[in-house]
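Q: Sequence in, structure out?
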Amino acid sequence: MTTHTVVMIPGDGIGPEVTDAAKMVLEAAEAPVSFIDRHAGVAALDRGADDVLPQDTVEAVREHGIALKGPCTTPVGGGFSSVNVALRKKLNLYAAVRPVRSLPGVKTRYENVDLVIVRENTEGLYSGIENLITEGVIVSMKVATREACERIARFTFRYATHRERKKVAAFHKANIMKLGDGLFIDEARKIHEKDYPNIKYEEVIIDAALMRIVQDPTQFDILLCENLYGDIVSDLCAGLVGGLGVTPGANIGDKDAVFEAVHGSAPDIAGQNLANPLAIIMSASMMLNHISATRQDDSAGAAGVKIKDAYNKALEDGQKTRDLGGELGTREFAEAIIDRLNG
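A: Exactly. Output:
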């Protein structure tokens, strides 16, 4: 059996706890992976690094092509810049993929939610280009290039085809931002018409799209978004199914991929065995599916399916952490999944 080296980035706050839980589950599932640890965020600074994203962490991901990452702290309104944004830019992880689905045993206001948000990860307002024009006047630039718009559209339709999804909806504000958002939907439209006419396609103005999601999320399938819209939409959709603690995430480029828990580092509960590790465990299952698809390793895909079935069964049996109305701690929830790995 081939073993795939994965760069583990534990992150800050609850990150080490939830990534340790994911390691427990992966080992019990006999997933064909081994780990090397690298650090980012406050954890890297605490270890003497000069930057929140040390070069050895970036180089390790480049060498091995895949990473599993816990949450990293990002200060609001000041301090150091986002580790997540820097990692995506340096590794050209241009596609953020966030599946959102209703889970057994997790009751919300919505049922049968099954969405995938695909977010352009490198441009838009998150390019971080801001200038002080004069006292009290700041300009933030929203960047759009044809190359990046075409690339994310092609990725989305290709993903839809491989996953046998039926419909792509491109969210935009081209009625106001006629050039930037206009370019985004123009490229999506061309990719659809030329290469993927078998997949249904629609364009929806972002504010109307959010209203429609809240009214009935089942009317959508795959949501194609530019960077800022995708960030907002993915968190909104997570709220439909129980929150960020039950939604996985991936950042994918042509060469490298980083799978991560998309929730925060929650320093207020760090070290107390209270955090829900499900998001990072779900992301680990996504990682195994990615390894299976890109490296033709069926054993990785089988382990990913086994883990998914096990956490679904655990939730169905009422095994939940406190944020979901249960009483299990971080480690105990991982053990509940492990208990169900073999049916």
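The first helix runs from residue 15 to 28.
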